Amino acid sequence: MTQLPNCPKCNSEYTYEDGNLLICPECAHEWTLDAANEDHEDTKVVKDANGNILSDGDTVTVIKDLKVKGSSSVVKIGTKVKNIRLVDGDHDIDCKIDGFGAMKLKSEFVKKV
């Protein structure tokens, strides 16, 4: 007999199968085995232009002149950005750049220092 996983809601070990559903008799939570496997793969990996994995607090360097939207100024190549924060969305780096203030960057335009 295969070992069924514990309930993700109450951690009960008394789960049972009903067709393609897994059911917990203690809290009445129902889920599929596919959904239980997908929960572990939700973490998004953000990589820089060279393929290095970025994490919160890293220091990166801008690899291309970037126009600042709504302004005539440009973030120059080689600008060092300290203490980045990773966020969800198209622009996946949230940071502060000296002389520009708070800004969002795309990870494809930076490299890890």
SSE blueprint and pairings:
Blueprint: E1 16-18, E2 21-23, E3 30-32, H1 33-38, E4 60-62, E5 66-67, E6 74-75, E7 80-81, E8 85-86, E9 93-97, E10 101-105, E11 110-112
Antiparallel strand pairs: 1-2, 2-3, 4-7, 4-11, 5-6, 8-9, 9-10
Protein name: Protein YjdM
InterPro entries: YjdM, YjdM_C, YjdM_N
Pfam families: YjdM, Zn_Ribbon_YjdM
Question: Notable features of this structure?
Answer:
hydrolase activity, 113 residues, single chain, N-terminal domain of TfIIb, three-stranded antiparallel β-sheet, YjdM, SH3 type barrels, mainly beta, rod-shaped, 29% strand
What does this structure look like?
By secondary structure, the protein is mainly beta. It folds into 2 domains: 1-39, N-terminal domain of TfIIb (Single Sheet); 59-112, Roll (SH3 type barrels), CATH 2.30.30. Helices cover 5% and strands 29% of the residues. The chain is built from 1 helix and 11 strands; from the N terminus they run E-E-E-H-E-E-E-E-E-E-E-E. It has one helix at residues 33-38, and strands at residues 16-18, 21-23, 30-32, 60-62, 66-67, 74-75, 80-81, 85-86, 93-97, 101-105, 110-112. The chain has a 3-stranded antiparallel beta sheet. Strands 7-4-11 form a 3-stranded antiparallel beta sheet, with no helix packed on it. It has a 3-stranded antiparallel beta sheet with strand order 8-9-10, with no helix packed on it. The longest helix is centred in the N-terminal third of the chain and has 6 residues, at 33-38. It is rod-shaped, with a radius of gyration of 22 Å. The mean pLDDT is 88. Residues 3-32 form the Protein YjdM N-terminal domain.
